[in-house]
From TrEMBL:
Alphabetical keyword list: Plasmid
Name the record gives this protein: Uncharacterized protein
Pfam families membership: AAA_33
Species whose genome carries this gene: Cyanobacterium aponinum (strain PCC 10605)
Amino acid sequence: MLCHFLIGVPASGKSTFAQLLAKTGNYQIISTDTIRQQLYGDEVIQGNWLKIEDEVINQMKEAIALKQGIIYDATNAQRAWRMDLLSKIQKQIGKIDWLGWYLNLDLKIAQTWNSQRERTVPDNIIERMSDSLQQFPPHVAEGFINIVEIKQPQQCNLSFIEEKLNGLERCIINRNNRTKIENIILHRYSKLLDFDRLMHLISLLIAYPELGNLQYAYPDILEQIFGNPVTFDDSLSEISAVMAKLKGNIYADKLAIEKDLQFLINYGLIKHNITEPKYESSLTEINDNLDDIITHYASDKYTFERILNTIKTIADYPFLPNVKADFLNQLCPNEQSVKDSSKSNLSGHLTNLTYKLMKLEKCPDKHLKARRDLLRKDIQFILKPYQILPKTMRNGYFLGTGILSERELIETFRLLQTQAKNIDDPLALNLYNRFKDKMKWANFYDHYTYPVRVIANRSMIDIKSLDSKTLSNQTQRIQEIIEQGKLVTLNKFANRGSYEGEEKGAFCAWLLQIVFYNFAWYLGFEQEGGENHKLFRFERLDRLYIQKETDKTRTITEQKKALNKLTKLLSASYGLYLGNDVEQQKLFLSSDKQKAQETVELWFTEKIFGFIAEGTKRFPTQQMKMTKPPRSLSNSNSSLFSLSKSKNPQYPYRFQVTLPIWSLDEFDFIRWILGFGGEVKVHKPKKLQEKIITLSSNTIDVYQQQKIESVL
């Protein structure tokens, strides 16, 4: 019995078309809008779909019992809806020959007709359904004997319908001849349902890399998907539930998904500890009898393999380099750019990927254009609709978060390993541990994690022994506060060391940056209010805690502006000490910054100056000058090594650096000078000379006193 299945967005003329169809035979129109009116008293009320669906099938059963044909009038905008309903009808009623009528009118026509109706549908719903139909248009492999597409309103007439019905048998014969399974090699995903499910699974694995473990790793993502907290018995249940929610119930077959996952492992799209891929044998395993199969785009084994190879290549080689234009012009001279002969019309990401695929497939270069056309079709009909590729690919092809090649991934892991393990970064350590687990799961860890590089610095603070309130244990919250631009009240633990001029008690501050310096983590901030209003400072994380979070915030633009000031002060200073004078900082950040600077000149012996001269980036280049060292390289920076020698034969080598005034009180700077002992002499300024003399004298006094005491 021939029955009709209408497909189209709201206001596309389906109900009117159904009335025309009904004139061609003994038909009963079954409309979801009418059923909603019957069940809920108003067709606008969406209601419970399962109840509506049950009523649809019951009315179909009644029509069949009365030997009436069926005209099913509903939007049927999503493929999953169509396939799911057709599958249930076949199971509960039996085989029915469904002819699909796809009212694919211009969206603007539907929106115009919608505005003229008594009951209008919001435009965004019409647009969303239109997008779904464009993404996955109706296909005979969904369960139809044929699809008739209607693009023009004038086609909605009785003569057009009768013409299509009279030619139906010939259309079916012609299509069957074109898609005979004798002409193709079938595989386990030759059925549309199986292929859809596999592609949707790949899409979900790309969108959610930890799918199957989200309830433990990122439960907030699951809550976002389902609208409330959820838990699952196992990873397969989680994957199936997400598949049902995001792609459709018909694809959420746990047993089938389990086999799909194993297939992807065997193929190499999912990393797993397997010694020998079993791709070929798993591909040729046919799940069911395929004698009555209706083929789809990738029913042939060659096409299916081509699509999978493309996905795997994009995953393995994201952002491929450009193929040289001169090579393309030699290969395809007809594609040489008319405007610029050094360019090719074929240049672009599509050609880059095509060329890489051809090299992997060992395909001759002469087939570039033909292979490129196939790739374009695969992207258009498969990779984009199934959301395997992102919407925009201006800089090249990649999959989901897979923006790194295998080598880049390994190098990134090594860098993170160095930072997390050697400078005790709490956030990086947490990320590193998760990264390490994933590298193990992907079978990378054992092969590529030899510590080629390390950072020898290490934190001198044992954060495990600190109060839980200390900022060292609140780095995640600090990061959030910085990004939110939130004002907080900070305070210092009473039992911590302090320096002269430091803030006493609680104070308000805008948090700007977390910095690792020498042996500890520091917080950079801008004070708000009080005597030190607008003072920029750094303080060790372990010394501070958040006393209160205020409701006051500022924009990210204001945060960046403040951070730029902090960065300027820091880059010009010797270390993290930025002084305790707001006016000095303001002066340094102004156009008269020279008034807040001091030039330090040190004289060195030849014995030690070679080491000094090697540090060409110890300070910003524009802030320092020095004498050219003996045996210097010919390519030495002439502006840097521009000072003449001093007149002191014992200390002939001069070194000058211009620093903010406060850096002369920086402990690290003083220690740097004192560390050279008698090999260095402070020439200027005088106050720095006096400071060095005082510190040296005090040290001498300590040991002289000790010597006297030992004699006594």
